[in-house]
Design a protein that fits this description.
- It holds the Pfam family DNA_methylase.
- GO terms for molecular function: DNA (cytosine-5-)-methyltransferase activity; DNA binding.
- One of its GO terms (biological process) is DNA restriction-modification system.
- Belongs to the class I-like SAM-binding methyltransferase superfamily. C5-methyltransferase family.
- The protein is an alpha/beta fold.
- It has two domains: about 210 residues, Vaccinia Virus protein VP39 (Rossmann fold, 3-Layer(aba) Sandwich); about 120 residues, DNA Methylase, subunit A, domain 2 (DNA Methylase, Chain A, domain 2, Alpha-Beta Complex).
- About 30% of the residues lie in helices and about 15% in strands.
- β1, α1 and β2 form a beta-alpha-beta unit.
- The two termini are about 10 Å apart.
């Protein structure tokens, strides 16, 4: 249905796009400036036009009309573990290019995703400014901090989602599902496929895992969740990927210092790229293409979990179907 065309900005590897595709939306245009992601996006979305330019150099008129705009403006500057500069960081200011394009294109809805740090007290003024900007261009805006584990994702992962509808539509986020998906449900069948990373012999199915050393920061906390639990957050850095549940919980030594069980030290390894992808609910036929394994972890860690994107997209579709979309379709016939 032509009316369900969406534009994807700051697309990354396409977690949002895939979730929206499952909900019957169709991405017709995407923008991603990071060249390490291009091959992956184009391989998995061969029919989508990928604009590789800096979004600041893209005029709104160059972007096709659509029913919705989705995306995750860069989040490093808002992160609790990052630079904490928020809107004072040039990356944080890219949020206003996202708003600029929405203002000019006037889609029926938009969705923006960001890290939980954007809600921190130190960012309160900047975040309120962003919401006010959306409201001033005609959108009824709702936002919420969501944990992916309540949306069929086997992972503790908190992210902020901002959804805006034209007119007076009061969007409500999808209800929580307490039937948690576990690591055993998700990756148990992959345990014998994992292999250590070899830069000269990349695994096209992404079963390799990073083998670099563990920093003192990494060793300051337990990084192992058991099979019957959900994963820790899949981060964008491979060095900080959680450890596989085949290993026992890391032993407490003293405050901010843990250690591997000496008798079972061989069991401690990071999740493979494919295991991370499964935990982010990417299907196995979604191939991540990279020359450096750390780029694989980065793409997956920065993505919106596909099942969470699908839950939100389905809810957006319901609101469109019951309210705006029938009227919009009559106007376009």
């Amino acid at each position: 249905m032509k009316s369900l065309n969406v534009v994807s900005l700051f697309s990354g590897a396409g977690g949002l796009d895939l979730g929206f595709k499952k909900a019957s939306f169709h991405t017709i245009y995407a923008n991603e400036y990071d060249k390490t992601i291009w091959a992956t996006f184009e391989h998995n979305f061969p029919n989508v036009k990928l604009d590789k330019r800096d979004i600041r150099k893209i005029e709104s008129i160059e972007i096709p009309d659509c029913v919705g705009i989705i995306g995750g403006p860069p989040c490093q500057s808002w992160s609790e573990a990052g630079s904490l500069r928020g809107i004072n960081d040039p990356r944080g200011q890219l949020f206003f290019d996202y708003i600029r394009i929405i203002k000019d294109k006037k889609p029926l809805f938009f969705l923006a995703e960001n890290v939980s740090g954007i809600l921190h007290d130190r960012n309160k003024k900047a975040f309120q400014s962003i919401i006010k900007n959306f409201e001033e261009i005609g959108y009824n805006v709702q936002y919420r901090l969501l944990n992916a584990k309540y949306y069929n994702v086997p992972q503790d992962r908190k992210r902020v989602f901002i959804v805006g509808f034209l007119n007076d539509i009061n969007f409500e986020f999808p209800t929580l599902d307490n039937k948690f998906k576990t690591l055993k449900d998700t990756i148990f069948d992959l345990k014998d496929n994992a292999k250590s990373y070899n830069a000269k012999e990349l695994d096209k199915f992404n079963h390799e895992y990073y083998t670099g050393g563990f920093s003192t920061i990494f060793m300051s906390r337990n990084r192992v969740r058991s099979w019957h639990e959900q994963s820790f957050t899949i981060q964008a850095g491979g060095r900080h990927a959680p450890l596989h549940p085949q290993a026992p919980t890391m032993e407490f030594i003293e405050q901010n210092k843990r250690a591997f069980n000496r008798e079972k030290e061989h069991l401690y390894r990071r999740f493979s790229v494919r295991e991370c992808a499964r935990i982010q609910t990417f299907p196995d036929d979604f191939q991540f293409i990279y020359n450096n394994i750390l780029d694989g972890y980065k793409m997956i860690g920065n993505a919106v979990p596909v099942n969470l994107a699908y839950a939100i997209a389905t809810q957006i579709l319901k609101y469109l179907s019951l309210t705006i979309l029938p009227f919009y379709m009559r106007l376009t016939i």
